[in-house]
Design a protein that fits this description.
The chain has 231 residues and is an alpha/beta fold. The protein contains 7 helices and 9 strands.
């Protein structure tokens, strides 16, 4: 099953509550929140108070992507604010295994995010405590960037690694996930799509229309892949 999660950094902050309600009713699967500290990435976005303010308006999981230095120092803050899933960057902490274990100990799903140039080998010795892996398909920090084509090979290599090692771990993709790039990421193993201005946040259509269009497109891609695999 392919899961769709809107990237709330792409939303109009002035009507964020209404946006969350509309996206929930439209049938998204989770909400993705990018937390940036201005150090690990060159931008500042979203904090725990904002998440608290919108949490009561949906039952969908909140996926918190910590793009911050030393994420282990901030886990409790976002757990207390209502996070259901937290991903941390392998590059941002000296104690990745300990940080992931701390997330799981609190009853949340633990994720590892990888920057475009970070090799998948960084995951080798933490796969037993990972629930999902976020492959950044752009350099993190700003919306609206172009998809990096080599990330399809990275996804394929990651999917192959997980199959060889026998792990059933979700693969999330984040960055310019739209109609041009979705066929490739699905083909190479992704099953969680973080969607922003390239697919969901379109001024010319309602969120309901955007979600229906996106889900129909994804299902058609799966049919095409099935037909290709069984020819």
């Amino acid at each position: 099953m392919t899961l769709i999660g809107p990237s709330l950094m792409c939303a109009d902050m002035g009507v964020l509550r209404e946006t969350v309600i509309e996206l929930d009713q439209a049938g998204v699967d989770f909400f993705h929140l990018d937390v940036m500290d201005g150090t690990f990435v060159p931008n500042f976005t979203m904090g725990p108070d904002m998440m608290k303010s919108i949490k009561p308006f949906t039952n969908k999981p909140f996926d918190v992507h910590l793009m911050v230095k030393n994420p282990e120092l901030h886990l409790d803050t976002f757990i207390d604010a209502g996070a259901d899933m937290i991903s941390v960057h392998a590059e941002a902490t000296e104690h990745l295994q300990r940080t992931l274990q701390a997330i799981r100990t609190k009853g949340l799903k633990a994720g590892v995010a990888l920057n475009p140039s970070t090799p998948i080998e960084e995951l080798t010795y933490v796969l037993d405590i990972v629930d999902y892996i976020t492959v950044m398909t752009v350099n993190p920090g700003f919306a609206g960037q172009k998809f990096i084509p080599l990330m399809n090979k990275k996804l394929s290599d990651l999917y192959g690694l997980l199959r060889r090692e026998g792990y059933k771990i979700d693969i999330q993709v984040d960055g310019n996930i739209g109609y041009e790039t979705i066929p490739g990421v699905l083909e190479h193993g992704a099953n969680m799509l973080v969607c922003g201005t390239s697919s969901l946040f379109k001024p010319e259509m309602t969120f309901e229309e955007a979600v229906i269009k996106l889900k129909t497109f994804i299902e058609n891609q799966k049919v095409k892949q099935f037909e290709v695999n069984f020819k």
